[in-house]
Automatic annotation (TrEMBL):
Entry keyword set: Signal
InterPro entries: Cyt_c-552/4, Multihaem_cyt_sf, Multiheme_Cytochr_ET
Family annotation (Pfam families): Cytochrome_C554
Name used for this protein in its record: Cytochrome c-552/4 domain-containing protein
PANTHER family noted in UniProt: C-TYPE POLYHEME CYTOCHROME OMCC, DISSIMILATORY SULFITE REDUCTASE SIRA
Domain of life: Bacteria
Cytochrome c-552/4 domain span: 184-222
Amino acid sequence: MAVINKKVFKNTLVIFMFLGLATLAYHCKNGKMESDYYNPEVVATHDNGEHFVGSETCMECHADIYSSHLKTAHFNSGAIVDSSNIKGSFKEGSNILDLETVEFIMRSDGEDFYQHTRIKNRSTEIPPSKFDIVIGSGVRGQSYLTWDKDDLYQLQASYYTPTDSWVNSPGYPTYYDEPRPIRDACLKCHITYAKSVEASPNGNRFDKTQMIYGIDCERCHGPSAKHVGYHRGNPEATESKFTLKIEDLSRQQRLDLCAQCHSGLRNVILKGGSFSYFPGEDLSRFSQNADDTDKEISLDVHGNQYGLLARSECFKQTATMDCSTCHDPHRKERGNTANFNGKCIGCHRDRATACYNKTDNSDIMANDCITCHMPTTPSQAMMVQLTKDSLETSFNIRTHLIAIYEKDQWRN
């Protein structure tokens, strides 16, 4: 009897030990899952120590804004190359960029894409360069970047949307040139964040594991690890915590968010690097343009929309107008003329909703404020050479200098 009781006791002990181990394993596993949920994966770390977690985390609470933002040129301004986002053709006959002394042939190998180089009248062999990063949403064109280990370069072949063809990248000569190093100042308007590696003679070395492509939520609202962690742990909370609230910013702080990329080259670096500025800070403490002190200088329509807007009477006559007065950064608005005209009429409704200009111009008769007062204008800063025998062609970009223009200045 004692033997049986001893055997039962041992079996019972084994069962309890098994249950205990199983319970411990369950809690360990679910504890990790809980930890992962309340502490989302960090995809990059800002210079100030704040952590980026990627815009996908915003979808949990802001699904509508997130899904609409995916369609914007901002979000699609930079991405890892794949067959869905590279606009240039790789089909035989449409895949060649023929320049004066060099020919570039674009070829694909499954989901990989390459620029092959043939220097005319020479037997020099140049290894093919891979298309790794696409720059530009394709509205006007795209350029492409290639990795050489951790060093980043621009390819000589770009894509030009109006002609649906390969063109020489802006600034490149018509002969073969060494790949152009891409520094953080080049990336800042197409990438939410890129971590530079110090030991780089050309300033084009980056940590590939800490690059966030496109301009996403965290570029304007700041790295969101604390925000996401808090609201996942406190789903009943109604007040937004640990994120930048745009409505709480001053006018200049709101303008600075856009001025990072829309106020010229800002090639005078005063503090840190091109990604050191943090939303809500004073942008002028980090960078400025060399010509900021010259108020009479002519501003090009490409890249300095902020400077042009600031010179407009519409802007100077109000203390509240900023970029978001007319633009919703969360939505694709390009081509929606009625929407932008409505913004103009919304401010000028106390005067008149019909244009006083008596003319046959159909745009004016349709009250098209934008075409008359913000005409598209050739950029002298952004130009491309379409063929080896052609002159450079300007990109036409809508000016943000809101003014009264002569009829011969109007462009659709």
